[in-house]
Please model this.
Amino acid sequence: MSKILVINSSLSGEASVSRLLVAETVQRLQATEPNAEITYRDLGDAAIPHLTSATVAGIRAVAETQAELAAQALSDELINELKAADVVVIGAPMYNFSIPSTLRAWFDHVLRPRVTFAYKDGSVQGLLQSKRVIVIESRGGLYSEGPTKAMDFQEPYLKTLLGFIGLTDITFVHAEKIGHGPEAREIAITTAKSRIAQAITPGFMNVLKA
Model:
């Protein structure tokens, strides 16, 4: 049985385009494997706490205090969810040209030395592999091309963070220009749904078991 980890990070609730498209993605994944086990992690409703001077040692060093041990326990929980997953679906709206701070806090807890990455022979080795990642990127403007592409600190950042821990099989789905009015929003959603349908073919989940 395949396992799917679904991460939403939008703060917009039912109005969120990324949440709508994440749901579409999960529905299509379930159509390819109805018995897949799904774990949901909603960072918009239940935010991961940002690391502070009182908690950071729980991730980056040796946990000793109660606060550090609590941070380490949360990190263990999030990493175990990630390790167990065959497919990871991430809803990542663009906030101020990058990702929500809620999603950044999640990454701060799962990018953990000696657990999800390690330094070896002067280079970094990602310790999580053999997973597929689908990232839904909703954007108010057009950032995949043209003069504003240089302002896209969302996709390159996500690609770097995921690749750092060994996750390189990534499909990015854009829903762009959603801030340009209702018609542009609907076109963006329709286009993104088509891209999702193209990405998730009938044998999508079976490839993971090969």
The longest helix spans residues 66-84.
